[in-house]
Amino acid sequence: MADETAAPTAPPQDSRRETFAFVIGVAGWLVPGLGHALMKMWGRAAACFLTVGMLVILGAGMRGNVFSSSGNDAFDWLGYLADLGTGTLYLVAKSLETNGADVSHAGGDYGTRFLATAGVLNLLAALHAYEAARGRKA
Amino acid sequence: MNASIGFTLSHLQSMLLFALLISIAFGFLSRRRPIDRVKYIVWSLFLFLLIGVGIGWAMYPFSR
């Protein structure tokens, strides 16, 4: 893993830095860890990709509920937003769960939480990458 | 991709995996030095498990 004690690389000018930070944030959301990888923070990139990816695979494998946009109530919508937080891995979860969700047992219910947590965790990582690109923290 | 997968995990296994993955992510995001990361991951994992088991025991009287 590369040395992450050094300050993150970012363009010097403020407007360019803002644009760069926005691109980093969106990239980090779309593909877990990509935002950090673009800033050469390899350890964090690998950790984000592996943990979010594992949570998605486990959640889908436990037949958790992958919420869709056709939700019936506010909780379905919140679940959908949380699941969307995984970016492109949302599509992976959808494709892995060909037999549909089964929340009639505890495993399926846990799977739903795993998927939602993966989304929220990825949003947190993307926000971290965005802030790091702005030079606020890392 | 059209490959269905399936896992059957116990309550304890689910909690352990969940706590471990979240602790690793938090450790890498919030600390820079490797030794600090390891300390944070171990401490976070311990607290996850302690609080999880504690809440489980606290709910035990209401389970029957």
Task: Describe the protein.
The complex is a heterodimer of chains A (138) and B (64). Chain A has one domain. Helix content of chain A is 64%, strand content 0%. Chain A has 6 helices and no strands. Chain A has helices at 14-30, 34-38, 42-61, 74-84, 89-96, 106-133. The two termini of chain A are 16 Å apart. The longest helix of chain B has 26 residues, at 34-59. Chain B is built from 2 helices and no strands. Chain B has one domain (11-62). Classes of the chains: A mainly alpha (138), B mainly alpha (64). Chain A binds chain B through residues 4-5, 43-44, 47-48, 50-52, 54-55, 57-58, 60-63, 92, 95-99, 106-107, 110, 113-114, 117, 121, 124-125, 128, 138, and chain B through 1-9, 11, 14, 17-18, 21-22, 24-25, 27-29, 32-33.
Kindly summarize this structure in a few lines.
By secondary structure, chain A is mostly helical. Chain A has helices at 14-30, 34-38, 42-61, 74-84, 89-96, 106-133.
What descriptors fit this protein?
heterodimer; A: 138 residues; mainly alpha; B: 64 residues; 2 helices; 0% strand
Radius of gyration of chain B, rounded? 16 Å
- Order of H and E elements of chain A: HHHHHH
Largest sheet of chain B: none
Q: Using CB atoms under 8 Å apart, which protein chain pair has the greatest interface?
A: A-B, 34 and 22 residues
Radius of gyration of chain A: 16 Å
Strand content of chain A: under 5%
Number of domains of chain B: 1
Give me the secondary-structure category of chain B: mainly alpha
Largest sheet data of chain A: none
Principal-axis shape of chain A equals elongated
Number of H/I helices of chain B: 2
Task: Show unreliable segments of chain B.
Answer: none
The string of secondary-structure elements of chain B, in order, is: HH
Number of domains of chain A: 1
Distance between the termini of chain A: 16 Å
Helix content of chain B: over 70%
Can you give the helix content of chain A as a percent range?
Answer: 55-70%
Q: Shape of chain B, please? A: flat
Task: Tell me the quaternary state.
Answer: heterodimer
